[in-house]
What does this fold into?
Amino acid sequence: MSEHVETGTIKKFLDVQSGISKTTNNEWKKQSFVISNNGGYEGKEQLFCFEVFGVEKVDNLTKFHNVGDEVTVKFNISTNEWQGKYFTSLGAWRIEKLSGEQNASGFQQAPSLSANEPTDLPF
It folds into this structure.
């Protein structure tokens, strides 16, 4: 799997989504955030909506990052099929501020859904 990287400004944090896995009875959390790289076609703003999955990752997202921060996001791209529809996700596994500060917000490998993980998600 190749590593994908995007750099830009955090524009927005979306609401946290959470639930309880039907298979493991564990809590899960997911949060999306939007960055703009301002370097798109003909200099037009390009938006990217990334997501982090996992209780600790969601808790750390807004603890260490704010709207307006310049960041580099390392992520995986995945597509899931559900009832004939396809959903593509940009799963962030590391977020670094461009100021060169190193903090505890770096995420490890992005989770992948497997037979042992929540299957009550709609994809």
